[in-house]
Specification:
Two copies of one chain form a homodimer. Chain A is α/β, with parallel strands linked by helices. The first copy, chain A, is about 40% helix and about 15% strand. Chain A folds into three domains: about 55 residues, lambda repressor-like DNA-binding domains (434 Repressor (Amino-terminal Domain), Orthogonal Bundle), CATH 1.10.260.40; about 120 residues, Response regulator (Rossmann fold); about 150 residues, Rossmann fold. Chain A contains 14 helices and twelve strands. In chain A, helix 5 packs across helix 13, helix 8 crosses helix 9 and helix 10 crosses helix 11. The first copy, chain A, binds a DNA duplex through helix 2 and helix 4.
DNA sequence: CTGAAAGCGCTTACAG
DNA sequence: CTGAAAGCGCTTACAG
């Protein structure tokens, strides 16, 4: 990259003059057109681009800490929106004046971003959606700034998470309120995560409660509305079709509900539905019919992550700043029409 | 803010030593525990925070340009997600390695962010959701980096926009396929924008086509699902209730549809619905029933904005770099069940 | 084991 | 009207 020095040399002027021109102060500083043109020509030839870091350093206007949010760009953009909303409102609440950088990475390739992390390019980092490989890689590093992982376990870094077993227990406790012979499961298909902790925990909990889930009744679908439509199709072709479905993602479930509505499959009479909610309670609440959901509160998670970073950064001792903090966020259960409670249970279960 | 120099002085060591400790290289550089502790204590007392800009400058790892996306935090977070997706895929397509900063601002208070803009803290800027006051303020500045405005008009800055009149013409041309005596309008309620260009253009186009819209049939609602529920309620209480509704936002319309479904108001028999889509075609497609929408392609808009910045930044001449570019993006019409076409029109109108 | 010094790229008061 | 110089806060070879 060409610097001002290079431009100055080529234009046969001083660096000061280049700076004046670059900053659009040629007129007020009475730079004659001839000089101005020489500088412009040199910039042109060299393809000069100002170095933002140097400017910030010089201007000292970047005492602001920089927080980076690492996320992947699969179908979970909706959740990203919820996270951003949570981050933003927490930043405002705390009067935490920082700059938020969004970094999109590809699963299993976190190593590419290692340089930025190890060079301490940021003051704090929030990382979501890591694969096992990414996590292992991260754990092998020794960064000098606080890192918060979303929904992952770590000894080394701070974490904010919703306990998968709690979600599973909630879901299964709802399912046992009615007696279904068979239960269908719709899980998010991902090339990076073998089988999600939530699905594993759910199946485990089913086992404990003596609910058997047939392997043939587990559907994998891409995390999109179209994926939900496809999942609904496969569900309808199942042998011994279960009368109840547990779905891992609200995006998928909305696609399924759409398809069931199209085909006049009545919910919950022909199929009762419970879903995990990831994009906020509104998504499932305003569906037709509204969907019973165990909501993972993305906004709360984001707020907690920011809160941890904020506290870490205000610690004066570097060692303390790197001390991992672990915060569990409780899911919220919303009982709605897609999986209503038996009448006499409503009183014992007033959670919506 | 304390610097390394301050820490060094207090700890009675050199700046080099502080740097070593801060960067976690104490062990490999054989710093004795005593020195280490002195430094830690000094950092502790002074609350030392490293300056990221200085590090980046020194490491030269930030040749990467920094693009900032300015957005407001009202209910349009869904659109933000779509924008981010568009930005990201365009960055990848162009192999445009840059850092993306999200800046949330408050309408009518853009002036607060002027410092960052005028100090050229970023290499390029995308600004969305500006109010009239913000826009006027921006126009009064003379920044030295390319700026792209989303859905706004400007002589000074580049713009990417969907023409409001085209949207209006599309909507009205659909409405005239059937003959409705009255038409209801649901508009987004915003404290900052008097009445949106799209609604204004729609009413204008209605006038041209001799469709009269009664002032009493215009509902203002917050841009949320709950806002849609409220709007549906007010619609149902209208005198001379219109049999067709034009809604400015898909978020609102989804709330309305939910409410109509709850109350067994049949769509399109009792009320036919057309909406503008802002959060991507999926949102309206998978509704029950699917909603006829004129889709504002947020992802395309974002991609175009990035493309303009990319071209601007690759221009070598500063003057050329600041030359505004204006790009119009066409909306896409999806005809669906909420407002079907008369049978004999389907052939002339194969747009879904 | 630790320090003095150079230098990253820029801006700005100051001198002429 | 323009240049030489200082200095923003950091890291890193180098010297001792």
């Amino acid at each position: 990259m060409a610097t001002m020095k290079d431009v100055a040399k080529l234009a046969e002027v001083s660096v000061s003059t280049v700076s004046i021109v670059v900053n659009g102060k040629a007129k007020e500083r009475n730079i004659p057109l001839k000089t101005y043109n020489k500088v412009m020509k040199a910039m042109d030839e060299l393809g000069y681009q100002p170095n933002v870091s140097a400017r910030r350093l010089r201007n000292l206007d970047q005492a602001k800490p920089i927080i980076a949010l690492y996320w992947t760009l699969d179908a979970r953009t909706n959740m990203l929106a919820a996270l951003l909303a949570g981050i933003q409102s927490e930043l405002e609440k705390k009067h935490f004046d920082c700059e938020l950088v969004i970094r999109i990475y590809t699963n299993d390739q976190f190593a590419k971003d290692a340089k930025e992390i190890m060079n301490n390019t940021y003051n704090g980092i929030i990382i979501g959606a890591t694969s096992e490989a990414d996590l292992a890689y991260l754990e092998s590093l020794s960064p000098r700034m606080p890192i918060v992982l979303i929904n992952r376990q770590s000894k080394k870094f701070s974490t904010v998470y919703v306990d998968s077993h709690e979600v599973a227990t909630e879901a299964v406790s709802l399912l046992t309120k009615q007696s279904f012979e068979r239960i269908g499961v719709v899980a998010v298909e991902s090339p990076y995560v073998a089988s999600s902790q939530r699905i594993t925990a759910f199946l485990e909990e089913c086992g404990k409660q003596h609910i058997s889930v047939d392997q043939r009744h587990i559907i994998m679908a891409p995390n999109s509305l179209a994926g939900g439509v496809a999942a609904a199709g496969r569900y309808l072709q199942m042998p011994d079709r279960p009368k109840a479905i547990f779905c891992e993602s609200d995006t998928i479930v909305l696609g399924m509900v759409h398809q069931f509505n199209c085909l006049n499959i009545s919910i919950p009479e022909e199929v009762a539905i419970i879903s995990i909610g990831m994009t906020g309670p509104d998504a499932t609440q305003y569906s037709t019919p509204p969907i019973t959901a165990i909501d993972i509160p993305s906004e709360k998670i984001a707020a907690a992550a920011i809160s941890i970073l904020y506290k870490s950064l205000s610690k004066k001792n570097l060692h303390e700043r790197l001390l991992p903090v672990h915060q569990e966020i409780a899911p919220t259960t919303y009982v709605r029409a897609s999986f209503p409670l038996p009448p006499d249970d409503v009183l014992n279960f007033p959670r919506a």
